[in-house]
TrEMBL record:
Protein name: YcxB family protein
Segments passing through the bilayer: 42-60, 66-83
UniProtKB keywords: Membrane, Transmembrane, Transmembrane helix
Organism: Streptomyces caniferus
Length: 198
């Protein structure tokens, strides 16, 4: 660009993080993280084994082995509460930094807080997910070890969410995009709208 002109799309966000923001972000991360999927499968396998052992213990004549009966519900609670506990811990860290001011533009993302600022290039966040309340930028490694939250409620102007989505689509790959249904594919081939199909 010449003459100091800037034709750069820029979206600014300002927000205070919530536990729910981190819960949604961690849920998005878990869908692409190899280690998160492996951990979840391992915990489910352990819970199934413990339930099986508890059933065998209850059906045996030797009496009830209390640890085998108590452990499956505890493992299930841990499995269900794991994301919530992580979200609370991350929220405590982020809340201590105060309000987050984010600028998203062609060069990347800058997050500023009362304690400092961090810049992230698009190469560091090559993919993103969209949830009902936020956009989640994810690093490209197999465990998505770095996440950046962009809450939709932080947008200051009308249309900023759509502009942000368009900018993310240009610079990152969307994960978890809705896959076309069979009816939608057939409708596309037939030249009709998928909403016309029951």
């Amino acid at each position: 660009m010449s003459g100091g002109q800037r034709d750069v799309a820029q979206v600014e966000l300002s927000y205070r993080p919530t536990v729910e923001d981190f819960r949604e972000a961690l849920g998005s991360r878990a869908k692409v993280s190899v280690s998160a999927r492996r951990t979840r499968r391992l915990m489910v396998f352990a819970a199934v084994c413990m339930v099986g052992a508890a059933v065998l213990s209850l059906s045996g004549d030797d009496g009830v082995d209390l640890p085998l009966v108590v452990m499956p519900p505890l493992v299930l609670l841990l499995l269900l509460g794991q994301t919530r506990m992580q979200a609370k811990g991350l929220h405590r860290l982020a809340a201590a930094k105060g309000e987050q001011r984010i600028v998203v533009d062609e060069s990347g993302v800058t997050v500023a807080t009362e304690q400092g600022a961090t810049s992230l290039t698009w190469q560091a966040a090559p993919r993103y997910a969209e949830t009902p309340r936020l956009f989640v930028l994810l690093s490209g490694d197999k465990n998505a070890s770095s996440i950046t939250l962009l809450p939709k409620r932080g947008a200051s102007g009308a249309g900023d969410t759509d502009r942000l989505r368009a900018l993310l689509d240009q610079r990152s790959s969307r994960i978890g995009a809705a896959r076309p249904t069979r009816a939608g594919l057939l409708a596309g081939l037939a030249g009709v709208s998928s909403s016309d199909i029951p």
